[in-house]
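Aim 2 progress update. The chain analyzed this quarter is reproduced below.
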Amino acid sequence: MTTGYDVIILGSGPGGYLAAERLAAKKLKVALVEKADVGGTCLNIGCIPTKTLLNSAKLYAYLNEASSFGIETEGVHVNWQRVMAWKEEVSNKLRRSLELTLRKAGVEIIRGMGKLTDGHSITVFPPVRESDGFRSSSPTSASQSSDSQSSTSPLIIKGQKIILATGSSPIIPPIPGIKNNPAVLDSTGLLSVAEIPSRLCIIGGGVIGIEFASLFSSLGSKVTVIEMMDEIVPVMDRQMAVELRKALKNVTFMLGTKVTELAGKKVLFENKNGEKSSVEADIVLLSVGRKANIEGWGAQESGLEIKNRAIATDDRMRTNLPGIWAIGDVTGKSQLAHAAYRMAEVAVSDILAGQNAQRSDQIFSPETVPWALYSLPEAAGVGLTEQDARPKGYDIQVLRMPYNVSGRFVAENGFSAPGSIKIIIEKSSERLLGIHLLGAYASEQIWGAALALERKLPISALRNMVFPHPTVSEVIREAAWSAHASSSKY
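Predicted structure tokens:
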């Protein structure tokens, strides 16, 4: 039997479910195909569970430092089973709420593995478990509902339009000794460990690796991070990354270092000078990046253009095939959930405009998508870093300000807590090129910086803005005024 829809969406991560909700709100008949759990990686085995665990770790760290603020505590300990139960409760309740919202909007959720068979058809097969030869947590079972695809026979569905939102998955590097090694986990597996590891070795010092390093080092694990690059978190401004690394005092970093082999729980590595060494760990986390999911669902067979191992799209998220859009991680443009949200909005706008023979004015601009790192301390940024701006030919001015100029920051974090802001501006126009934050609440402040860059505002816009007092966000204005003090412009 073949069922027809206005739009079929393959994948129910942040981009997929947002697109489904927005399109259904416009009374379009929408099918959302998902092989596992609605919400995708972010809600079930990524952003949300990770931040839930990080919050518990931060509470533990705050309690251990509470005496500095006049609060005496005794017998503080971590109940890991309760921590994990809270993580599961958060994800499960949010997922059920999301599914209810989608159904109320009129979205039909179809469980199974979708495969693009032509420009308007998707065949949905019952989901199957996959194994890469390394440990990962068992995926949570798909919720059963009246709209679940429970038949063992493939279901063929047709759509006038198709949105591809198949996401990404962890990269498994070809390091000898990784496959079938019970000590090796990916990020999904580490979110389900039965106990806090005494020794944790993390291969990869990017965003995922650093968040887990911060999490488990705060809970007492002896953490070692091995990173091939000369500095952690490549997306960060280099100077800010150095400050973050120094702030993670309970983490040992091996930079410019390559893992050569795993021998059980022993990780062997070699630095750029050819010096070899090793470290023993109870758990080894692989966090060397993620790759777009372009295999197993018909991308190549259908003739979709693949560029840089991702689905190529224009700035309206259109693929090379008429009537097919791609959003989120699978495009290779960004692996951030909020970027997927924005891509979904752009694709939806393009689809709706096309139905009325109009052209959408919405486009996706990756240059002004902010990022955030939820470690302790937090970090966030948007736009160009100092190391990126100069090679691009910009004549820049760099503004810096420590967070301890904020009375609230000092009152809540102490005088020695790490924290600073860095602003990159173009000298001639004073236009904002990049804003980078390190310290408490950074993730909650970066949206304003992103808006300023999106609107191509000059530094004077921040200088003339009224910030509530006392707030940590005032450091943005203070940094902006530091430029004014040395300028002849008024």
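Residues 2-170+291-355 form a domain with the FAD/NAD(P)-binding domain fold (CATH 3.50.50.60). Confidence is low (pLDDT under 50) at residues 131-146. These observations will guide the mutagenesis experiments scheduled for the next reporting period.
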